[in-house]
Amino acid sequence: MTLLALLLACGDPPGRPAPPPPGDAGDPRASCASYRGDPEAWGYCLATRIRGVDPGEVEAICGEAGAWEADCRTRWVGGQLTRLGRKDTPGGLGVLVRDKALVAASDALVDVCLDDDCRFQAVDRWRDADLPHQLTRCLRAGRYVRECAFHAAQSWEGAEPSVEAALEIWPRMPAVDPSVRLWGEQAVGHALACHGAPCPADDPEGICRAAWEDARTKGCKDALTRP
Q1: Number of structural domains, the chain?
Q2: Which one of 84, 136, 184, 203 is most buried, counting C-beta atoms within 10 A?
Q3: Residue 8 pLDDT more than 50?
Q4: Phi and psi for 96 in degrees, rounded to 5?
Q5: 86 and 133 share a domain?
Q6: Residue (of 132, 118, 128, 113) closest to 58 by Cα position
Q7: Domain C-terminal end among 47, 63, 92
């Protein structure tokens, strides 16, 4: 858990006056002005009030947050991810989507991030229903690339893809980076097994076939791709 998350869960820093409650409007430098003399409280206050700030102001404002800069950027990105999906997409974490504009907008937010916690949420919050593409997006998740990849595979499998959908993405798997490809190939094998359809003949490493056998032995729901 980041220091910001811990403080938000447990209260304000010991000995510090409580900053104004988080808001979604206005320049936080104005509402946090009384804390300018205390770098720790100033940075914390900016981070807690950054969510509604315009994109063009984020770098400048979070840049003044000192030790809180990374958390400031992470909170802003989280707020933007929520807004991106608010109009026509269910809320929550790890939602499978087919809206390419939503996926592209989420990808653009990665550039705002300074740490992998932020990058992970940017690529994992709205998961592209195009599994090969989502696996490729996961390469930007830093130390969370493994978690991102199995989230992608599980979400895709959970949508109960058809045989046609599984066979459509299979020829594209070789182009996916080897560090994340395994999860995609396993997911295809599980999906085909759930329909009683065979794996493609071009399965040189036998990953699809192994996943297929696993699903047929354990049952579809118990054989979902694991980390």
Answers
A1: 2
A2: 184
A3: no
A4: -80, 125
A5: no
A6: 113
A7: 92
